[in-house]
Task: structure prediction
Amino acid sequence: MSAASEWSGGAIEEPLGERAKAAGIRVGLASPALLWVLLIVLIPNAIMLLYSFWTNGLGTIIQEFTTKNYSQALQSNVVRALLQRTFLIAVAASLIATAIAYPLAYLIVRRAGRYKLPLALLVVVPLWVSYLMRVFAWKIILGEKGVLNGLLQQAGVIDHPIKALLYSKVTVILTLTYVAVPYVFLSIFTALERLPTALYDAAGDCGASEWSTFRDIIWPLSRPAAVIGFAIAFVITFGDYVTPALVGGLQGTMLGSIILQEFGTANNWPLGAAIAMVILVVSFVFLGAVSLLARTEAVID
Amino acid sequence: MTSVASRAWSSLFVIGAAVVYVFLYAPLVVTAVFSFNNSDIQTLPFSGFTTVWYEDLANDVQMREALLYSFKVAALSVALAATLGTVLALILDRVAIRGKGVLSAAVVVPAVLPGMVLALSLLMMFRYIGVSPGFTTIVVGHMSFIAPIVMFLILSRLRQLDPSLEQASMDCGAGRLRTFWHVTLPSIRVTVIAACLLGFTLSFDEITVTFFLSGVQPTLPVHVWTLLRFGFTPEVNAVFTLIAAVSLVLIVLAAVLLSGWRPHRRNAPTSAPPIEQPAQTNVLALTYERTP
Result:
């Protein structure tokens, strides 16, 4: 034990027994947190892991260890295709959301002056509006008799409504991008906001253009926040099942829809659990890889 | 760069930003507008103003039951989450134990897991111990992701507090409990209330976790979700608009509460951050809601 940690116990001269007692009291005080982690995090996830190694037999769960679910899931063409599609959709939506949110955050921080906070809040307000409503609204907008087709027809751009607007991969990407933008924005905005304005002034005084100030100073400092925003968007979109169910149609089915099926009509919990574990592992591996990129080139403080 | 070119870039950026705001608000406006449209079909041109969908809503027994159920779920899960969140925040702020870094990361896991994974893990645990889906399971599910958010807000408040206040209280002979009741609790009270308001809107709107954990009686979002999957009535637009309006009122209230407080003065350190800083961060922190 280092001197510093002994101080935290407040007992330098105390005998060992006393020190152990103090540590015991501290663990006792922390027990609600330990219980929380045990009951809400560890046990449920351990049971899910267990389920994924069991099998489904005529309405009952056979509690024998097997890797059948995983081999079934990973060998199934449907699951493989959906895994690939879900991954691509999630990456595309998160990238587009980041590409939208970053310039917007930069613009608001640099140019909005005293309207900075209201404008930033306006971007995140949609997060507080019903999630179902945000997704469903796109169905009203993009449907065959929807608002967009109506507008285009009235304007004389098209004669017949375009059917392809709804129920496609692109619709799912658009809707998930819409859902993700505020989260990514939040991450980037708070980071850009913390950068002292003196940085911009100093670079400007040294003759740097706004672009080179951005490229050489602001981007290296804010890149981690952009990556974190991207990662949040990925986690949200990768596991979603509401959006594909509402606006995806057959073309836009995602992995989440399959899990929904296994826990619903197909009633094969172990297989569903195995697919859920695949989602969990893929997101962790991907986020791990991404966080290597997030390593900052420069730090301020 | 010449000034003409840079001005062209600037206006391009501003136009781009305007487009983004339209993108963000069009769906919300469309839903609200169509909730007053006098037609079964969601299309242009508008057929006229009506409040008939709101009247339908008021007479819809299933919808009313779902609404009441959602209220009960939200009230209980927020009450539990607020208590637990406060306790967790106090532990992470005050108790020095080994592996605290791991502990504080583990505590927030339910709020950062994909909603589906949280729901499934809880569902399987409940099935394993023989609790059938219903009120209890939904409440536990909601509590699991709301408590870490409450904890996060309270923790950032606790870190702003002046520790000498509590020390003074104990020097004057008050025990830990009395000090907590008379000194600590009053100074975090506003944050707790704001966190409750936020938690309420989150619980009220939640669908991903709730869907898997609900039994026969659906909450309002689950009921609406079922309606949407098996057909559609414009009544849904009306209920969405109402929920959005109520959520926004609650959130604005929470934001005002959170930004209204004055940070305690801490012997005026020379490198003190600007006064608005903590308040601002906390208003934005409200939006660290769980991922759907």
Remarks:
- The beta strands of chain A are 55-57, 60-62.
- Residues 77-111 of chain A form the longest helix (35 residues).
